[in-house]
Amino acid sequence: MAGFQQGMPGPFAAMDLPWLLAAKARQRGSHPFLIWAPAEGPDEVWSYARFQAEVGQLAAGLARRGIGPGDPVLVHHENAPALLLAYFALAELGAIAVLTNTRAAGDELAYFAAHSRSVAAITQPDMAALVEAAAPGLRWIAVTGTADWASLFAGEAGRPSRAPEPERPLSVLYTSGTTSRPKGVVWTHANALWAARVNAAHEGLVPEDVHQVYLPLFHANALGYSMLATLWAGGTVVLQPRWSTSRFWPVALRHRTTWVSFIWFSLRAVLEGEIPPGHHLRMFGFATSDPPAAARLGVPGIGWWGMTETISHGIVGSLHVPNRPGAIGRAAPEYDIRILREDGGPVGPGETGALFCRGVRGVSMFLEYLHDPAATAAAFDAGGWFATGDLVTLLEDGSIQFADRAKDMLKVGAENVAASEIERVVLGVAGVQEAAVVGRPHPMLDEVPVAFVTLAAGADAAAVPEAVTAACRAALADFKVPREVLVIEDMPRATLEKIAKAELRKRLR
């Protein structure tokens, strides 16, 4: 965004997220922006005008509570209108929404609060005690659905007025990397506008589209691919608390859903059930172009690849020309993509290599890792290329196919999990000498974690696995807890220092 100061206005000069919401409220005031479809009770509708007005009321209330520009606020909340209202209200104040995984254990939540230096928190009633225990130093905790929360919407008197600053930090999303603790990925207002505009273009969204959202809004998929993209197009978001196989089609039919982002377990659940002939889906997004799924649903699907750090899809299928079956897509025109062999040379057709992505920091790429300049610097080379940690194959027709994760990561359902994050907890258990966590293939979740351990002298081989499981349940989100703890005599070695995890995966198979 510095180019704006040099006579080179960027695509979002003099714009920010509150500007976009206000513009849509003027353009589409009576049109539904948000439809809340809870698991129980009636649906509720927010027009663009109503949503923008309530954001202003909440922004004024948060300002009265002392929240101002640059203040990080922990938002620990499942999908609900309150989460979105808080996200936009904090944006209006120039504050920073720290969106955290609601499956986090107390130790993880304490880390998020301390690392982000959050000054306050917004959460839901059944999570308030956890937040209070994990972050005792907060100024205050606002609990949605209570009288205290309602008092924050006392009117728009004092609604802040702030000139748009596209380069201002907007939010933090924590993403698992190869380190033992997740890194905080900082998005600017320009990043959010990029997600809105570019994702809407990749998905071909129009004002009549209805985007059904069940994935958690603390992930880039639901936040950027779905919600922000729909906002840019002036369409409608139908928000569900979480995935429900039994409720997916009733909600989709009731609200005439036209667009949905699938992940493996949700797509499989839909394909295994009955497809209603009168549905209104016209397109869906998935990890790959999948003709059998598209044929079963009777609508096209596009593949895509992206990360929290890349904001949008760096690789994506096309809406208008044929896509290679099983491929992610092609390099998105908004990014530079390159694939390098282990020796640093470019791959040829049919070869697999490491994936690198390049864009503009703070616009098409994340701004930085929060409070971690060393990790930020290490993520980019001298030419500005971001090392994604993924391995992909360049196909002969120019399409790209996902191959593997170069980083020591697991994919548990829709969640990226760093093996080292689990190993950190396992190694703290009495009697454990060494630990290695790998993924075991799973028919619904892609893979699940399994821990291999060696024992210290005198340790009880029968008691250690149970102790490891208990420690992980206490310190980690449930999806990170090893499904099995296997005691072995020695770790296989790739070198004298490095555990050969490929060999451990072979043992599981």
Residue stretches low in confidence (pLDDT < 50, at least 5 long) are none
Would you report the number of β strands?
25
Distance between the termini: 49 Å
Strand order of the largest sheet: 2-1-10-9-11-12-13-14-15
Most strands sheet: 9 strands, mixed
Helix and strand composition category = alpha/beta
Explain how this protein is built.
- The mean pLDDT is 94.
- With 509 residues, the protein is an alpha/beta fold.
- The strands form 5 sheets. A 9-stranded mixed beta sheet has the order 2-1-10-9-11-12-13-14-15, sandwiched between helices. A 7-stranded mixed beta sheet has the order 6-5-3-4-7-8-18, with helices on both faces.
- The chain is globular and about 65 Å long.
- It has 15 helices and 25 strands.
- 47% of the residues are buried.
